[in-house]
Amino acid sequence: MNEFDEVPISNAVVEQTILIRKAVRIKMPDALIAASALVTQAIVVTRNTSDFERVAGLTALHPDLV
Predict the structure, then answer these.
(1) Strand partners, 50
(2) Which of 53, 27, 55 lies closest to 39 in space, CA to CA?
(3) Calculated CA dihedral for residues 42, 46, 52, 53, nearest 10 degrees
(4) What angle do helix axes 11-23 and 28-40 make, rounded to 10 degrees?
(5) For the whole prediction, is pTM greater than 0.85?
(6) Are strands 60-61 and 44-45 parallel, antiparallel or unpaired?
(7) Quick check: 14 and 34 in contact, CB under 8 A?
(8) What is the pLDDT of residues 8-53, one digit of tens each?
(9) What is the pLDDT of residue 11?
(10) Which helix (H) or strand (E) holds 61?
(11) In this structure, are residues 34 and 7 in contact, taking their beta carbons and an 8 Å threshold?
(12) Residue 44: strand, helix, or coil
């Protein structure tokens, strides 16, 4: 886990989370992860790519394909 950065829940992340929840039917924890990735211009690596693929501008990769 040392290779990963911790992303604080800033106002920008909160605002992005709200926009995602309004645009896409996605659970709050996933919306928060997606928002954090968008704000920091990061890629989400997850086995649950189907939910994240619906978020505009977000890149989500399955770990088996990385």
Answers:
(1) none
(2) 55
(3) 90
(4) 120
(5) yes
(6) parallel
(7) no
(8) 899 999 999 999 999 999 999 999 999 999 999 999 999 999 989 9
(9) 97
(10) strand 60-61
(11) no
(12) strand
Residue found by looking up tokens 């604080």 in the block = 8
Q: Report the CATH fold assignment for 11-65.
A: Rossmann fold (3.40.50)
d(CA 31, CA 44): 12
Q: Can you tell me the distance from the alpha carbon of 27 to that of 51, in angstroms, rounded to the nearest whole number?
A: 9
**Predicted confidence band of residue 1 (pLDDT cuts 50, 70, 90):** low
- Nearest partner of 34 among 63, 46, 2, judged by Cα: 46
Q: Per-residue pLDDT for 66 more than 70?
A: yes
Residue 58: both structure tokens together: 């977000």
